[in-house]
Amino acid sequence: MIRFRLVCLHRILAAAVVTGSFLPTFIQAADIKPIRVVTANGITLLIQDQPFLPIITVNVLIKAGAVHDPDAKAGLAFLAGGLLDEGTKTRSATQIAKELEFMGAEFSAKAANDFATVSLRVLKKDSDRGFTLLADILMNPAFAEKEVARIRSELLGELQGEKDDPGIVANKAFDEIIFKGHPYRRPTNGDEKTVTQITRQDLVAFHDKYYRPNRTIMAVVGDIREFEALNLVKKHFGKWAPKDSSSQSFPAAAPLQKPVLKLIDKDLTQATVVLGHVGIDRKNPDFYAVAVMNYILGGGGFSSRLVNRIRDEQGLAYDVDSGFEADVMPGPFSVRLQTRNEAANKAIVNVLTEIKRIRTEPVGYQELADAKAYLIGSFPLRLDTTGKLAGLLTIVELHSLGLSYFEDYPKAIAAVTKEDVLRVAQKYLNPDLYALVVVAKQAEAQIDSGALLGTK
Amino acid sequence: MTTFQRALCLALVLALIGIFSLVEPAASGRLKVQEFTLANGLKVLLVEEPKAPVITVQIWYKVGSRNEIMGRAGLSHMLEHMMFKGTLKFGKGAFSKIIKKNGGNDNAFTSQDFTAYFENLAADKLELALEMEADRLKGLLLDDKEFQLEREVVKEERRLRVEDVPPSYLVEQMYAQAFMVHPYHWPIIGWFNDLNAMNREDLKAYYEKYYAPNNATLVIVGDMKAETALPMIKKYFEGIPTGSPPPLPAIVEPEQKGERRIIVKREAQLSFIYFGYKVPNFKSPDVYALAVLENILSAGKSARLHDALVYRKKLALQVGAGYNELAADPELFTFYALVQPKAKIEDVEKAVLVEIERLKKELPSDQELQKAKNQVEARNLFEQDSVFRQAMLLGTAETAGAGWQFIPNYVDQLHRVTKEDVRRVARKYLNADTRTVGILIPVRAKAYARPAAGDAP
């Protein structure tokens, strides 16, 4: 039920205060008590019984992300994820779709940098059939030549279409600059050249290597007792064979030596700006202080300095925000905004001013208190559906945050001081060495590179 | 007498006797809605949903771009933005800041038929949201300087959502063709010209006309008890006086007599087609058969359109159908397709029409009909997983004029639809003469830049 006549919002909801795998969590200990079990073949299973509605949500995270793509075959993990439900050894693509949709199930499969995610939502009465299909899709995809060719051609079409989206164009250029020498620099969905290189054999080999129970975290949330979930997993995934896989390590991205400006010319009324550099990984102990600092800078919507200055005081943009993607490895820190071409310089100067300010002046007492109150107080909203909770559980497990994380998180946020905020701003924000990407009608934007890069 | 007039009468009677009315919870469906009407006409819908310690508070005003007049397209949405710019009690920007420091998220949205504001919060913050929503129902500052700034923000929003997004631009043009007289003609966000022409007085008059308790519905879903929520609601909202009944939009779109086509040529990577047929809204019993028809054509990879155009013929990257049965006035049953780079847009259009014609000739299979019903039934339960979504559905149905009962009754109504109904509504409504077709023809960047190439194919 896609409605193209979009409802207009007051403000685009930011993807997350700190995006990526960061999910701020604070669980009132009594409410959520998941069971954690590692099956004989190595699946880490998290189960949360929530009997409110007769539905079950399963979120499966497989360490089969795009970081494992060879450079020349960028898009491999993405294609493999997209082909999982396009036919198995015993079911055609059409059959899978029919069986899932006849139950009214919701299904999705998608690969990102660090991992692939497969999720399924079914009515309780269909849980056994749902698991039958889920197991078949994960364990036995056929990667039939005909389906590979079709999905690849669809992906090529989408890649062409993405060129119309200034946000995507800017992100891709930005990642390429800041992640030099690191797998995060490649677009997850590859490009026209690399996608064409990917063969059926590549996909079969990728699946064989990375889609294994010992690389899998599975969360089951809904109207299901723990033993029922465990039995379903044993019954349907019991024959999935583990395979030794030592974890791969990657060299860090080469740091920028000087600020880099990339201008992309398109016939647009608005300039899309991305400014930033490499940030932090999820295991960084400064994560919580960074979350508070970023909220104050640009993550906190109308409570953030960037929105106040750029939108509320000057009317320069509908949406502006900042975020750290705290992934398995350090992900990007970026500020994003869109403004009419002519105002691009002015908006960027404002962004740099705010980055500098939070690095030099301690934040105010009230600002700090408000940021912490939001991050702690908004916790229940991040867990209020089976889907959100299942997604969160897999991420907590991925980063080995432990189930005590649900109690630790508010404490960690509460402990952040003004001094911490200043320290992490100085450590993780760099107003001298950054990438700046501007997709715009350049003749109108007239980007002042000298002034913006500090070379004038 | 329309539903709306009936509602007004009811409000009047209640104002006279000065008590609450309590309507029994819905007879069917799991959703237990409690309905009350305050003496001043404010409708209140409460759903006790204790599964998580959260709550959503939403206030829905019966005003959207449908209520605007020619030359002021976008006024409803502009006013929505100004609702965050302060009252005497809570100054500029305070609303969102206070909600956030209480751990909540707030936002608002405007459609053709409604403007709605919401706060999602921990359940114990209910009173705060009520106090602040009641406060901005009356006494908005509407400062002129703030308006001047916010107009620039809305223009940026228009650039972001429409001007630089080729398919959105086409959709806007298509609607302007499909509706020549009715306000569905213009975009919710407004045209640049109208945004520039607006002034503070327009906003003030509009606010006074439409922001009144008797033109609003308060929907609360979450971890609360009606017996404690209700006194709080009374405390903050009861003192707001009833407004004079807002004028009802009475514009009827004349019958369309023949297909209309609109072409947009602009720099873009992919062709896009978007077309719609004039169909009835919830006031017609045919809505349920049309909804089943939409599912058969469009709900998932096994649905007919995806199977034919994406899977078998490889003509489209995406294809689907859309039907908003909860439009306040009759709207469109739409089809869209994002064309495969190698495919021709004419072939894509033909392939969609083949599927439409097939539904007029042959009855759908038992299996397809059952699948559509299963999908709607499952979706109905999945949606109850989110308190926000539940409140949205109730608010939409109530504000459109269908009554919130439309939501809990929906699944039962859908189950009554037969194969013959589906074929009958396909024959009745999906006819070329009421069709408006919009086609986006990509123009290559260089050709676009050459002034003389304006008419080149």
Adjacency order of strands in the biggest sheet of chain B = 1-2-6-3-5-4
CATH class of the largest domain in chain A: Alpha Beta
Which blocks of ≥5 consecutive residues of chain B have pLDDT under 50? Answer: 1-29, 447-457
CATH topology of the largest domain in chain B: Cytochrome Bc1 Complex, Chain A, domain 1
> Helix tally of chain A?
17
What would you say the CATH architecture of the largest domain in chain A is?
Answer: 2-Layer Sandwich
Number of strands of chain A: 12
Largest sheet features of chain B: 6 strands, mixed
What do the pLDDT scores of chain A average to? 92
Helical fraction of chain B? 40-55%
**Biggest sheet of chain A: strands side by side, in what order?**
2-3-7-4-6-5
The assigned CATH architecture of the largest domain in chain B is: 2-Layer Sandwich
Order of helix and strand elements from N to C terminus of chain A: EEEEHHEEHHHHHEHEEHHEEHHHHHEHH
Low-confidence segments of chain A: 13-30
Q: Name the CATH superfamily assignment of the largest domain in chain A.
A: Metalloenzyme, LuxS/M16 peptidase-like
Can you walk me through this structure?
The complex is a heterodimer of chains A (456) and B (457). Chain A is of the alpha+beta class. Chain A has 2 domains: 42-237, Cytochrome Bc1 Complex, Chain A, domain 1, CATH 3.30.830.10; 260-452, Metalloenzyme, LuxS/M16 peptidase-like (Cytochrome Bc1 Complex, Chain A, domain 1), CATH 3.30.830.10. Helix content of chain A is 40%, strand content 18%. Chain A has 17 helices and 12 strands. In chain A, helix 3 (127-139) packs parallel to helix 8, helix 9 packs across helix 15 and helix 11 crosses helix 15 (418-428). The longest helix of chain A is centred in the middle third of the chain and has 18 residues, at 145-162. Chain A is globular and about 60 Å long. Chain B has 457 residues and is of the alpha+beta class. Chain B is built from 17 helices and 11 strands. Chain B has helices spanning 3-17, 75-82, 94-101, 126-137, 144-163, 166-178, 192-197, 200-210, 226-237, 287-298, 304-312, 345-361, 366-383, 387-400, 406-415, 419-429, 445-449; strands at residues 34-37, 43-48, 54-61, 105-110, 115-122, 216-222, 260-267, 272-278, 316-323, 332-339, 435-443. Helices cover 44% and strands 17% of the residues of chain B. The interface between A and B is large, with 81 and 96 residues. Strand 1 of chain A pairs antiparallel with strand 4 (105-110) of chain B.
